[in-house]
Amino acid sequence: ELHVIAAGSLLEFALEEIPSFAVGRIRSLYMYPFSFDEFMSAQGLGLQLEAVRSASPDQPLIDTLHKQLTDQLRCFMLVGGMPEAVSTWVETHDYLACAHVHNDIMETYQDDFNKYKKRISPDLLRKVLRSVARQSGTKFIYNRADEESRSDKVKQALQKLTLAGLVTPVTHTSADGVPLGAQENERSIKYLFLDTGLLLTWQGIPASDILLASDVDLVNKGPVAEVLAGLEIIKNKDCFQRTEMFYWQHESKNGNAEVDYLDTCGGVVLHMEVKASAQGAMQSLYLFMRKKRLHTAVRTSLENFGAYDYIDPIPENNDPNPLRHIEIYPLYAISHLTTDTLIMSIL
Model's pTM, two decimal places? Predict the structure, then answer.
């Protein structure tokens, strides 16, 4: 009996050429670029990771260690998790050398599209992939990808890019219960680009914009922090299942509200807002908690571990308990969002 292993960025494209599969004899494992923890391990910084795993909102890290980790996170945003880029960074600590690797990877991806031109236009795939990069962090608008192509063609291109693992959809859900996909609205989808390093290089964002930005500006201005948070959630999922990602939004005449990510673990829904701000600016998350009668949620940013409570002044749905509790997790500790400790705090 011969076992065959196949891997590749466009493997799903190639599999579509096969007329049929032997049911039950093929196992798929979904691989992703390095996570932040893996990036740290590649640099021999395992002791710092152990400290992160021991920290919590009740036991934050010492300031010097927290600063070291946020500095490493900025590096990770720029280098990304593509193995060759990480290897180049470990050897050279040169952002420009990593950018050359990123450009080579993006050129190779786009050149590979030509292999499948009988099924879909390679030029359209390139335009749509570029548009995903430009629309990161926002609801995807089809006609911004290619004004000359019908929306169904753009959707087809997005489906192909999703199968190839180059983008990941984040679908709006009303979040009325588990499973979150039971209330999804496919008319409102955001897309995550494969890797922040590739994204920033392809967009021409200079390293100084990431390294010198204030903590608040880095998280609140531009999509990179939100994209990184989503990618970290994906990388810590079960590798035997294709990951589904969700967010929540509320549209009204007075303005829109949005909670960046909703996730489930152990039957519990985790609600996460990527935001660095004072408590008074968390109106989207507060509105979501009010409407869903939730009393605990998560905020992630470049802040240290922490937590705070507030009283909702206008609770809805006859909620007898107006107390809300927000747990703060640093972006470098996103993997902690699936731990039993957080689940117990929410319960």
Answer: 0.91
